[in-house]
Design a protein that fits this description.
Layout lengths: L1 E6 L11 E6 L1 H4 L4 E7 L4 E5 L1 H4 L10 H11 L32 H6 L3 H11 L1 H11 L23 H12 L7 H11 E4 L4 E10 L9 E11 L2 E11 L8 H12 L5
Parallel strand pairs: 2-4
Antiparallel strand pairs: 1-2, 3-4, 3-8, 5-6, 6-7, 7-8
Helix pairs in contact: 3-5, 3-8
Length: 268
């Protein structure tokens, strides 16, 4: 793996900023245009593939289920992550392309596991535009724009966020700096856990969809964002890639992230 450049932004003690190390992971990303940002909290440094893209904003798609879950619990729309909930099937009728796990009743735990879009659209509708905007502003989430519809603004392009901003949000979330109750934060942390070993715990959420590129509506964007707890250290990460169709990104978004994390010896 070739390190392109190491940019140290630490200038004295007063104006200290994290170090940024740009690493070329092209042999892992292969044909996929994308970026990954990893923040090592113990050493206060970033590892970044494609720095320019890391600051470019894209539709968050289902990675917004993280803040959506926090807001649902904080507002009482959902009592807890194990409360069963049936969305309004008249407003969100079953469609032919839906995965088999989507129809029926879900808890937030199962809805985030299977990334059940209608469940979270119903949640957003119950939260309402005014309260949702207040939370998105409080969280300083991406460009804060929910103008395209209270139940789909994270899916159709009005709300956008960069990989760097995803990491910034995750850091505030983990440290409970979002201005919400510790219980809401703890509940969402619990349902994000993907893998737990004796050496580390991986928590993450996928996201993906089409329509983010207005010039090429069939092009797909894939996200994988989260963090790794390893000993006393926290590693936060956010990646996105592009593909000509959804099938081009559905598996690689996670595989690429895991391979990079393994290369950096963050996971094994």
């Amino acid at each position: 793996m070739k390190v392109i450049t190491a940019i140290c932004l630490i200038v004295g003690l007063v104006s200290a900023k994290p170090a940024i190390e740009e690493i070329d992971f092209s042999n892992i990303f292969k044909v996929h245009k994308g970026t990954i940002v990893i923040y090592d909290s113990e050493k206060d440094r970033y590892f970044i593939h494609n720095t320019e893209r890391s600051r470019k904003s894209f539709t968050p798609f289902s990675t917004f289920k993280i803040p959506n879950s926090i807001i649902a619990i904080e507002t009482g729309v959902i009592e807890n992550t194990d409360t069963e909930f049936q969305w309004d099937s008249a407003s969100y009728p079953n469609e032919s392309w839906w995965p088999k796990q989507w129809p029926g009743r879900h808890t937030m735990r199962s809805a985030i596991k299977y990334s059940v879009v209608p469940f979270y659209r119903e949640i957003a509708s119950k939260v309402g535009k005014v309260r949702m905007q207040a939370f998105v502003d409080k969280f300083d989430y991406g460009n804060r724009d929910i103008s395209s519809g209270e139940d789909n603004f994270w899916l159709d392009g009005s709300l956008t966020i960069s990989a760097m901003e995803q990491v910034a949000f995750l850091r505030k979330f983990y440290k409970n700096e979002l201005g919400v109750s510790p219980g809401a934060v703890a509940a969402v942390k619990d349902i994000l856990i993907q893998e737990e070993t004796e050496r580390y715990r991986l928590s993450a959420k996928t996201g993906g969809g089409t329509g983010f590129d207005k010039a090429n509506p069939d092009k797909a964007l894939g996200w994988y964002v989260g963090y790794v707890e390893k000993g006393k250290n926290l590693y936060y990460f956010a990646m996105n890639i592009e593909g000509e169709s959804f099938s081009d990104i559905i598996t690689p978004r996670k595989e690429i992230s895991i391979e990079v994390l393994k290369y950096l010896k963050i996971i094994e």
